[in-house]
Amino acid sequence: MTHYRTTTIDGLKIFYREAGDPALPALLLLHGFPASSFMYRELIERLAHRFHVIAPDYPGFGHSEAPSVAEFNYTFDNLSDVVGKLVDQLGLKSYGLYMQDFGGPVGFRLATHRPDRIDFLVVQNANAYEEGLPDNFWGLARALWKDPSTANYARVREAAMSDEALAWNYTHGVKDVERIAPDSWLLQRALLARPGNKDAMAALLYDYKNNLPLYPVWQAYFRQYQPPMLVVWGANDAIFPPSGAYPYQRDLKRVDFKLLDTGHFALEELGEAIAVHIAHFHDALSA
């Protein structure tokens, strides 16, 4: 049974989902953009018998407090700092990390800052390599990074946060659109409608440029610490295509690599299969 909890970190109310016996190995689930821990609702239930599962909402996302950009500096450094303090507050001494989309730059910061705490990594359409940011999708973002003008912000907001874009995030690349519940993007639409929330998301899209200089740091972490990694990647993703998945095998010796016939939010269509992959991967680590 999942519990829905709220705690306070640095004066902000932070929401998280929690399930499973705390005596079990911990697994921290880090969500993408502009999603929330809601994306893990079914995976939590599927894994709670074998992991102590925690899935937080970052500030500005989901059910966590969403201060304005004047009240909170929306950067990946700050998101990671909040999640790290939640980990400390919950007393997690070691844990696995599941990262999707924005969860990558949040989680890789945690891993490089405290490598001794990381038991394993699960990467699902989360990028750590320049090859994974093709210009045919990331051109608008790169234009914003180069020139953060009002016009470029407006273009990125429309491309990333229009009603059509929110639905497309979930339906592009899937095998059967009729299997994809619309609840996710309807929830996102409602949350983005909060005053100032789109400004917060746009600030993070601009700050994404500051992840790229950290790619070599994260890759050096892979090479030095060799965390076991499971890659479960939606192969038809136009946002983070498989060109960003393959390079992990360059730097890591122990990679269980699965390309899946689906899109960006792979859990929506192949959540049961991903849960099985995680179970088999973890069993192999424990053998």
Commentary on this structure:
The chain has 287 residues and is α/β, with parallel strands linked by helices. Helix content is 43%, strand content 17%. It has eleven helices and eight strands. The mean pLDDT is 97.
Unreliable spans are none
Strand order of the largest sheet: 1-2-4-3-5-6-7-8
Give the radius of gyration: 18 Å
Q: What is the chain-wise order of helices and strands?
A: EEEHEHEHEHHHHHHEHEH
- What distance lies between the first and last C-alpha atoms, to the nearest angstrom? 28 Å
Structure summarized in a few sentences:
β3, α1 and β4 form a beta-alpha-beta unit.
Task: Supply the key terms.
287 residues; 8-stranded mixed beta sheet; alpha/beta; globular; 8 strands
Secondary structure topology:
Elements: E1 3-9, E2 12-19, E3 26-30, H1 41-47, E4 52-56, H2 76-90, E5 95-100, H3 103-113, E6 118-124, H4 135-146, H5 150-161, H6 163-171, H7 183-192, H8 197-207, H9 215-225, E7 229-234, H10 248-251, E8 255-260, H11 267-286
Parallel strand pairs: 3-4, 3-5, 5-6, 6-7, 7-8
Antiparallel strand pairs: 1-2, 2-4
